[in-house]
Design a protein that fits this description.
By secondary structure, this protein is α+β, with helices and mostly antiparallel strands. The chain has two domains: 74 residues, 2-Layer Sandwich (Alpha-Beta Plaits); 177 residues, Immunoglobulin-like. The protein contains six helices and 13 strands. Strand 2 and strand 3 form a beta hairpin. The radius of gyration is 19 Å and the shape is globular. The two termini are 29 Å apart. Keywords: Metal-binding. Its cofactor is Cu(2+). This is Superoxide dismutase 1 copper chaperone.
Length: 291
């Protein structure tokens, strides 16, 4: 597991009801690498963790207690660094048919009988209630400014198998990850422009599942409103005229989401949905019943 070089704080809402719940959460976090400190508030059902561990790994550890867990916010542990955090939900700019969009989650793949579908697993994206989104969700990337010139990124993707999107018969394919220059993402990748910030490269496994946790030089406020792009390396290397030859040439090869500002630690006290009047726990349970 890759750890950050600087401590940061992540706040979770955990549906705890008694001291046994507190003990279970404490036990789940006790041996997680990179955790420097954790504070558990039973009354407010809040768990705040300070350390260098990726939020996605912390979420997995907390969910191992079989309790509802919701990410509430992330921020630097230093009081001298202004709170800046963002999130990007990665979708396909063009609709993908189920025959192509098959992911490691049988529900998103449109599989009626997940047990009989070979090669698929039920690994969910960390912290994602996927039924809330009208399109299939192929990844989530969280960003937090942990130092004046350092942005921490925590990316998890679950992409279509390479062979289904024309990336060859190999089990793996390489994808470039970057924050785009401003542009229209409806007809990618021609109109995204050159990368504004290159974030790195990711190579998902044969099921399309992969993650990347790293520090990037930059200031997060400059990325807000731009696109976070995950694009097949072979698509990037295509000549411009080849990419422009057909509007569908990038189906299943590029995934994008707006980098949207999100709450920092202690920056989100909302517990009731203003639209439905239901609590966050009720909303979460309703989503879980759909799976």
């Amino acid at each position: 597991m890759t750890l950050a070089s600087v401590d940061f704080k992540t706040e979770f809402a955990v549906d705890m009801t008694c001291q046994n719940c507190v003990n279970a959460v404490s036990g789940a976090l006790r041996d997680v690498p990179g955790v420097e400190r954790y504070d558990i508030d039973l009354e407010s059902k809040r768990v705040t963790i300070t350390g260098k561990t990726p939020p996605s790994h912390l979420l997995t550890a907390l969910k191992s207690t079989n309790r509802q867990v919701i990410v509430r916010g992330t921020s630097s542990a230093s009081l001298n660094t202004p709170t800046q955090a963002a999130v990007s939900i990665l979708e396909s700019p063009l609709p993908l048919p189920a025959s192509i969009a098959s992911t490691s989650n049988p529900i998103l793949a449109g599989v009626e009988n997940p047990i009989s579908s070979s090669g698929l697993s039920d690994r969910a994206l960390p912290g994602m209630n996927e039924e809330e989104h009208s399109q299939k969700v192929f990844g989530i990337c969280r960003f937090v400014q942990i130092a004046p010139k350092i942005v921490l990124m925590d990316l998890t993707v679950r992409l279509p198998p390479p062979a289904r999107v024309g990336l060859g018969t190999a089990d793996k394919a390489r994808y470039n990850v970057y924050v785009s220059s401003t542009g229209n993402l409806v007809d990618p990748p021609i109109t995204t422009g050159k990368p504004f910030v290159k974030l790195g490269e990711i190579e998902p496994d044969k099921e399309g599942y992969g993650d990347m946790f790293k520090e990037v030089d930059g200031e997060l406020w400059e990325w807000i409103g731009r696109g976070c792009i995950v694009e097949a390396a072979s698509s990037v290397s295509m000549p411009p005229n080849a990419r422009a030859s057909t509007r569908t040439s990038t189906i299943g090869r590029i995934f994008a989401g707006v980098v949207a500002r999100s709450a920092g630690a202690w920056g989100n006290d909302k517990t009731v949905c203003a639209c439905s009047g239901r609590t966050m726990w009720e909303e979460g349970r309703d989503m879980e019943k759909k799976f």
